[in-house]
Structures are given as structure tokens and as C-alpha cells.
């Protein structure tokens, strides 16, 4: 992929050895701050948009050159001056891509931290995957924007990924026929395991032909945007629901896709909703916590993890995510829990 202007090419990672910089026993902690050991970190498509110059506007803050990048992760608290996060507690939220870091007591990222109880003793990595933001993205978006129709048709893109693999299972649980696409045959096998009725590799099959044969679509879960969104518009059923979750085909592109079927939004009465997961947190979090961890613990929901060990391999793992080489949730394991 082309390097973001001014940024090192993903794949070459500079590791800032914070264990050398932070005196773990004695580093002074300000009021309410905590010192954590990072266990695992999430790699996500939105990180591509953080690789930009600070003066370029965007919906998430840019990474700052020569400072550690940050993202979602799970850590264990080593030292604490914060009454909410005691020593030994595990937390989920935003943190540096570092072995250890101090999270200051006020503002962000402290505000993003959530105490993990983990009563079911599940692996910590799940809390950046099916029990983290990707899981919530699938569940919140599905609950909020889809009126499932038994035997109706749902089309889900990047169906073997962290979000898409859970959306397939939600659609099947609601009795829908599922068409799902991904970019390798191994991913197609995984989507079949998840219950997809028509799983296909979009590199070796024509999405256009498949949608014509198996549509029209009552639901389109969009993770890719561009040409596939246009094809979904062309093959939408009357009053279809389109969930605009992501547009990963456009994240490296500066050219807008020349849509041909936009007017179908009107003529087919399509309900089209874009969303950011955090905006649905208040409404759906309680239901998520009551239902999803237990289903995962009981093996009722399937997931895959694409694990990379060691911070030094972050760059190449991020490049793999952005070129489709991951199957399932992309995670960097930094330290033992
Ligand atoms: P995935 O685990 O699905 O990984 C990304 C996948 O996208 C790759 O495996 C690949 O799958 C596909 N891909 C990568 N690059 C391209 C490309 N250039 N063109 C086409 N496909 C590509 O990631 P997530 O599950 O974390 O995210 C899925 C989508 O959900 C993303 O669009 C993301 O931005 C969005 N998202 C939105 C959120 C929100 O709040 N709205 C929150 C979280 C995620 P394949 O082999 O199928 O091509």
C-alpha cells in the first residue's frame, strides 16, 4: 500500500523500549494515574486513517511521529494511585503500543478504561475481539439497524474478519439466508463453518453474478464500500436495510468511487445507516454484557484470532490486515497475562 504522506512504510516498526525508560518500581505516578503492563493490542482498519499529517482533518486523531502509536488493548495494573483500578486488576481501553505505560489520571485515555471482571476466565485477547470493539460493532449495528426477516437475504462483506464473522452468525440466528464474501479460499471455508449459505471468494468469483443469482438483498452489511456497495444497491430488495459499518476498499484511495446506482436508495426505499460503535454503547451495552460473553464461553459463537507475537512485528501485522492476509481478529500479543 502507498505510504501515508510523511510516515514510515507499514511493515517497518520502530519499537520504543518503554521498559528501559520507565523505572517500574519507582517511576513517580501522579494522582489517579496507573502503571500498566500491556498484554495484548488490537490492530484495526481505522488505524490507517490515523497515519496522516496532524493538520489533515479526520474523525480520529492522527498518530504523532516519533511517539508510540496507541490503540485498544488489555493491560494489567502494576502500580496504582487510582481507586478504581487497583494493582492486579485487568483493564481494557486505549493505551500505547508499548510493553509498559503510565496512563495519566485525567482525560483521555484514562476515560476509555474499563475494569475487566472476566468471571468466565476467558482469554484476555477476546476482550479486543469478539468481547471488545469488533464484537460490539457487530451486535450493536445489527440490533440497531436491522429488522431481520426470516428467510430474507443478508449479504455480508469481509465475512471472515473480526466484525463480519460475528454478523454472519447473528444473521443466521435470525433465520436469514446469508451471502458472505472474503478474499481467500481459507476464509470461505471459515464462513461456511459459521453457517453462511453462499460463501464466496470475491477474487475468483463475480460478486455481480452471485448477487444477481442469490439476491435481491434485504440486508447489506457493508465493510468495504466502493464497487461492492454499488452492486449491493443494484441488487437491493424494496425497503432493504443497508448498514454502513466500514469502507475498507477506500481507506488507501484518494479517488471517490463513481457510483451508478445511488438513485436506488430512493426508488427502492432503502434505509441506509452509518454508525460509530461508541455512539450505541449506552443503548446496547447492558444487553451485550448479559448475553455475548456467556455465549462465547459456552462455544455458541465462533471466532478466529490472527495472532502476532511481539511488538516488533506490529508493522507487518498491520500491513497484513490492510491487504487482507488476516483471518479473524488481528491481535498483537505483547506480554503474558
Ligand atoms: P477485518 O478483520 O475484517 O480485517 C480487514 C479485512 O478487510 C481484511 O481481512 C480483508 O478481508 C479486507 N480488506 C483489507 N484491505 C482491503 C482492500 N483494500 N479491499 C478490500 N478488502 C480489504 O477487520 P474488522 O472486522 O476489524 O473491520 C471490518 C470493517 O468494519 C472495516 O471496514 C472497519 O473499518 C469497520 N469497523 C467499523 C466500526 C464502526 O464503528 N463503524 C468499528 C470497527 C470496525 P477480505 O479477505 O475479505 O478482503
TrEMBL record:
| Every Oxidoreductase N-terminal domain range | 25-107
**What would you give as a GO molecular function for this chain, any one?**
oxidoreductase activity, acting on the CH-CH group of donors, NAD or NADP as acceptor
Record-linked Gene3D superfamilies: Medium-chain alcohol dehydrogenases, catalytic domain, NAD(P)-binding Rossmann-like Domain
Give UniProt keywords alphabetically.
Answer: Oxidoreductase
Q: Which InterPro entries match?
A: ADH-like_C, ADH_N_2, GroES-like_sf, MDR_fam, NAD(P)-bd_dom_sf
Q: Which domain of life is it from?
A: Eukaryota
- Identify the residues that the record assigns to the Alcohol dehydrogenase-like C-terminal domain, covering every copy: 162-288
Please give the coiled-coil regions recorded for this protein.
Answer: none
Q: What is this protein called?
A: NAD(P)-binding protein
Amino acid at each position: 500500500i502507498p505510504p501515508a504522506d510523511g510516515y514510515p512504510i507499514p511493515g517497518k516498526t520502530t519499537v520504543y523500549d518503554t521498559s528501559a525508560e520507565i523505572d517500574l518500581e519507582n517511576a513517580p505516578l501522579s494522582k489517579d494515574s496507573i502503571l500498566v503492563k500491556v498484554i495484548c493490542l488490537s490492530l484495526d482498519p481505522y488505524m490507517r486513517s490515523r497515519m496522516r499529517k496532524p493538520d489533515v482533518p479526520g474523525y480520529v486523531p492522527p498518530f504523532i511521529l516519533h511517539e508510540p502509536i496507541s490503540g485498544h488493548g488489555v493491560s494489567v495494573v502494576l502500580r496504582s494511585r487510582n481507586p478504581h483500578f487497583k494493582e492486579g486488576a485487568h483493564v481494557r481501553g486505549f493505551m500505547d503500543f508499548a510493553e509498559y505505560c503510565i496512563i495519566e489520571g485525567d482525560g483521555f485515555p484514562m476515560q476509555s478504561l474499563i475494569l475487566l471482571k472476566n468471571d468466565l476466565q476467558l482469554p484476555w485477547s477476546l476482550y479486543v475481539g469478539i468481547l471488545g470493539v469488533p464484537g460490539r460493532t457487530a451486535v450493536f449495528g445489527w440490533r440497531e439497524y436491522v429488522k431481520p426477516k426470516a428467510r430474507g437475504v443478508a449479504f455480508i462483506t469481509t465475512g471472515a474478519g473480526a466484525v463480519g464473522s460475528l454478523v454472519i452468525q447473528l444473521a443466521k440466528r435470525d433465520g436469514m439466508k446469508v451471502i458472505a464474501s472474503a478474499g481467500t479460499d481459507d476464509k470461505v471455508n471459515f464462513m461456511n463453518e459459521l453457517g453462511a449459505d453462499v460463501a464466496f471468494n470475491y477474487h475468483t468469483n463475480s460478486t455481480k453474478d452471485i448477487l444477481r443469482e442469490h439476491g435481491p438483498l434485504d440486508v447489506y452489511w457493508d465493510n468495504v464500500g466502493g464497487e461492492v456497495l454499488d452492486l449491493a444497491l443494484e441488487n437491493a430488495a424494496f425497503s432493504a436495510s443497508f448498514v454502513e459499518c466500514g469502507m475498507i476498499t477506500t481507506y488507501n484511495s484518494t479517488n471517490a468511487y463513481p457510483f451508478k446506482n445511488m438513485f436506488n436508495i430512493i426508488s427502492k426505499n432503502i434505509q441506509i445507516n452509518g454508525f460509530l460503535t461508541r455512539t450505541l454503547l449506552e443503548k446496547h451495552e447492558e444487553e451485550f454484557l448479559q448475553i455475548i460473553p456467556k455465549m462465547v464461553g459456552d462455544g455458541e459463537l465462533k471466532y478466529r484470532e490472527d495472532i502476532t507475537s511481539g511488538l516488533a512485528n506490529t508493522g507487518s501485522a498491520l500491513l497484513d490486515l490492510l491487504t487482507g492476509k488476516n483471518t479473524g481478529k488481528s491481535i498483537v500479543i505483547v506480554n503474558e497475562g
